[in-house]
Amino acid sequence: MNIADLVNPGPPQVPRRSPSNPHSVSAPSPAVSAAKLPTPPLTTHKSMPQKRKRRDPKPIWAYLENEDLPGELKAELAQREPRQHSRPAPPTPRPQPHPSPAAQSNGTPVAHQAVMGPPPAGPPPAFAPRELGGFERPLTNDVSIYDEVVRKVCDFIWKNVVENQVLQEAVREGPRCCQIEIEARWGQIIDRQLNTRLQGLHDSECILRSSVAESTKFESTMSLQQHQKMNRFLNEHTSKSQKLDANRIVHKHTKEIDAFYELDQHGFKTLAPAIQNIIHQSRSKQRIRVTRMQDSGQIVAKIIKQRVANLEISSPQTEWDYRIGVNLEIQYPGPVETLPPVVEHGQTPESMRRIKDRVSYSFNKAYQVDLTQVSQGPNKNHELELEVDAGMLLQAADNIKQGRPSDFESLVTGMMNNLRVLSREMTPQN
């Protein structure tokens, strides 16, 4: 396996600064010329295939519990598990009431449900999607219809995390060695040539092809005004959630300082063999991010962040686009006092420090939203991130492999729903 295809680091991007004018809110960007996006090939009646092109074989995680598995997958599961651990019968679906017209017309009740969904009690329950009924149910009588964007994100995580043997080998070195990070960032996809937000042929949420993503960059930032609005929104829902026995949002306020050091040859040799292999194959210079508490100066983390893969989602109807990122957070075991500090051209070690004022909101035992103000020298940047618990996703993936009920697609659906809810909250009403 070629590690270069899995680990694709690049030089860290300097965050785009928030507008100096506190009243400046990002306006819709000009549309990108259609010539900047790939043109789909023209088709004619003669050239059309006899059948609709399908993905074959269907990934194992995508099968619902009441679906029959093909013969080769049944044989694979039979080899992994004894007969008594065969696929359990699906739970009896419970009918759910349709949302009222008031809830459909006002986005706020829907936002409450997505941000403060019920937390799992004990082991993750089997994923049982809401059963469709009435006009929503199609002529095929299917009880549920999958979300196409969610499925593509599931494929992305399955390929780059679950089936990434290089990554799994590194994780087997132990939690003190490294951890997998699956995070999503709010920001804007910028066309490199026009230096404007990517707009064009699409008018709704879609995943960028890799060929398009190569000609764009992702800027994770918001204005001060947006930061303040999001802070009020999250605090309001945190306060409301405290009145409930379940569905509580737990928040934490931290102030930290990041400093960066070069990973020299001596420090490289202190890493585990699997980690050394990943860094060597990446062929890039690595930095160690040392995080200290602002008040006490105590070191709380020494991390080498290795990028594995990114997936970008354009959302032209909202203020922000999304980037789903898979990273490997490598714990640096040695001392940092003897390491050379990272100093970029025209900077000093003092001006390279990043002061982070962060409020974290954790919920459902699976997600954490971080709202952060980053100060570096005279510049300030505001960021919003969502992290999903990688351990829960890996456990859910293992359940799929073993033929047990799994929350894999449900966890990814929750991640996407929270991205959408917060992005729509920040988008001005027309």
From TrEMBL:
Positions with biased composition (Basic and acidic residues): 71-84
InterPro entries documented for this protein: Cet1/Ctl1, CYTH-like_dom_sf, mRNA_triPase_Cet1, mRNA_triPase_Cet1_sf
Enzyme kind, highest EC tier: hydrolase
Subcellular location: Nucleus
EC number: 3.6.1.74
Occurrences of domain mRNA triphosphatase Cet1-like (ranges): 147-388
Residue ranges of coiled coil: none
Pfam families: mRNA_triPase (PF02940)
Annotated Pro residues bias: 88-100, 117-127
Gene Ontology MF annotations: mRNA 5'-triphosphate monophosphatase activity; polynucleotide 5'-phosphatase activity
UniProt KW Hydrolase keyword: yes
One cellular component (GO) term of this entry: mRNA capping enzyme complex
Catalytic function, reaction form: a 5'-end triphospho-ribonucleoside in mRNA + H2O = a 5'-end diphospho-ribonucleoside in mRNA + phosphate + H(+)
Domain of life, source organism: Eukaryota
Keywords: Hydrolase, mRNA capping, mRNA processing, Nucleus
Cofactor: Mg(2+)
GO biological process assignments: 7-methylguanosine mRNA capping
Region (Disordered): 1-133
Sequence ranges of Low complexity compositional bias: 18-35
Family, similarity comment: Belongs to the fungal TPase family.
Record function comment: First step of mRNA capping. Converts the 5'-triphosphate end of a nascent mRNA chain into a diphosphate end.
Subunit structure: Heterodimer. The mRNA-capping enzyme is composed of two separate chains alpha and beta, respectively a mRNA guanylyltransferase and an mRNA 5'-triphosphate monophosphatase.
Name of this protein: mRNA-capping enzyme subunit beta
Lineage: Eukaryota, Fungi, Dikarya, Ascomycota, Pezizomycotina
